[in-house]
Amino acid sequence: MKQHRFTLEEIDARRAELRQQIRVQKNLLQKKYEQTFQAPVVDTKFQSWMNKADAAFSLFDGFMTGFKIFKSLRSVFRHFRQEASDKEP
């Protein structure tokens, strides 16, 4: 079976094509990110307050979730450390 040898021109053309595809995908992802995380449209002052309260609650919830995960991991590692110290003579 004969293998195809690529020329420098073919490699450069393929590289340019792939770079263009990467640019298109990057722009698409950037647009999706902006649409996902853009601030909601506020019509009234009450909606503004509710958005701020929602953001504060989300921050608190994230902090508490992280704290609970940290505590559980700390207890797991403490358990392994105690097992290791019990095995040593």
Which characteristics define this entry?
2 domains; 2 helices; single chain; about 90 residues; flat
Structural class: mainly alpha
Number of domains: 2
Low-confidence runs = none
SS elements, strand count: 0
Helix/strand order, N-terminal first: HH
* Oligomerization status of the protein chains: single chain
Tell me the major beta sheet. none
**Principal-axes shape call:** flat
Distance between the termini: 65 Å
Beta content comes to under 5%
Radius of gyration: 27 Å
Mean pLDDT: 88
Number of helical segments with 4 or more residues: 2
Lay out the secondary structure:
Blueprint: H1 8-37, H2 45-87
Description:
With about 90 residues, the chain is mainly alpha-helical. It has two domains: about 1-40; about 50-89. The protein contains two helices and no strands. It has helices spanning about 10-35, 45-85. The radius of gyration is 27 Å and the shape is flat. The protein starts with 7 loop residues before the first helix and ends with a helix. The model has no long low-confidence stretch (mean pLDDT about 90).
Give a summary of the structure in a few sentences.
It is built from two helices and no strands. 82% of the residues lie in helices and 0% in strands.
